[in-house]
Every structure is written in structure tokens, then in C-alpha cells.
Amino acid sequence: MNEGIWYLAHRKLEYENGSANSLEDPRVVDVKHYKIDANIASNRHLSATAEIFFEALHNGTRVVKFGLVPSLRVSDVTFEDAPAHFVQTGEEKDSGFYVILPLVLTKGREYRLVVNYSGDKVIRTAGGGNLSVGARSSWYPSIGSFVDRATDELNFSYPKRFSLGKRRKSSL
């Protein structure tokens, strides 16, 4: 809620010509696949690399917003193997994480983005040496969670004394 919505409505022309549609797709990219390599330390600190493969849905996009729990902090981002700028608000502010792309996207083209991040308060102790991942849709840089379907590869490494429980099939 702290991110805010400055103004949310259709353009005047859309109302006038009857083209305003509440079912329109607001996404700027369609994630096709996530590949996440995560390490859980003995103190439950999570560090991870997320490779995100996506298709541009519009021409000209330069900024892409991701969902990421605020306690996870991004250290660097690469876009098509080149460094990319990003903006992440303070941990106490909100979950805003935005990647500023070095070039504009071309509709229909597929791209690769890599995000390195780490932090705490995401891995929970479930008892009996079991761990579970909290923040189901925001422990990784996600777009349109629960709306945008994508395939995934999840690789976790963690101390032998723990076991990572999976309550359901992964559906990033």
C-alpha cells in the first residue's frame, strides 16, 4: 500500500469512444521461465540468483516493476549480459523493485534478465529441522504472481541438518 497509485483510470478518449475495458492486460512483459538458484545459510539467510526469461508485450518499455519482499535486497542486475540499473526503495518503505533497462524493448522479442539478491525474514523454521519458504509470491523477483503463468527451475542448497519442505507443487 505504501507504493501508492497516483491515478488509475482510462483515458478520456477511451470513455468517449467506448473502448475502455477493465479486462485489459496491464503487464508490459510476459515471463516465460524462472531459473532460481538459492542458498540458505545455517542462520536462514537467503541468497539467490534469479534468471528471468520474458517476452516484451509492448514496444518501447524501459522500466519493469517486480514484486520482491522488502527484506530481500538486490545487489546487481544484468540484462542480456550487460549491467542494468535498478531502483529499490528502503526496506521499511515498500516492496518496490524496478529495473531500468539499457535499451527499449521490442514487442514479441524474448529477453533474459539476471537478478542477484539476498536477505532475511523469508525462510521459516517449520520444526523438526524443516524449513519452509515464506512470502510465496515475493521471495523471488516476480511479475504478475498468481496471474502470469511461467515454468520454473528451483535449486536450493542448505546445511545438511535442515530439510526444505514443499507443501505444494511449485507454480511460479
What are the defining features of this structure?
8-stranded mixed β-sheet, 3-stranded mixed β-sheet, disordered C terminus, Immunoglobulin-like, 172 residues, mainly beta, single chain
Describe the structure.
This protein is mainly beta and 172 residues long. It has a single domain, classed as tricorn interacting facor f3 domain (Immunoglobulin-like, Sandwich), CATH 2.60.40. It is 3% helix and 44% strand. The protein is built from one helix and eleven strands; from the N terminus they run αβββββββββββ. It has one helix at 12-17; strands at residues 29-40, 46-56, 63-67, 72-79, 82-88, 96-100, 110-119, 123-127, 130-133, 151-157, 163-164. Strand 8 and strand 9 form a beta hairpin. It is elongated, with a radius of gyration of 18 Å.
Could you list the spans in which at least 5 consecutive residues all have pLDDT below 50?
Answer: 167-172
Main-sheet strand order equals 3-6-5-4-7-2-1-10
CATH class: Mainly Beta
User: What string gives the helices and strands in order?
Assistant: HEEEEEEEEEEE
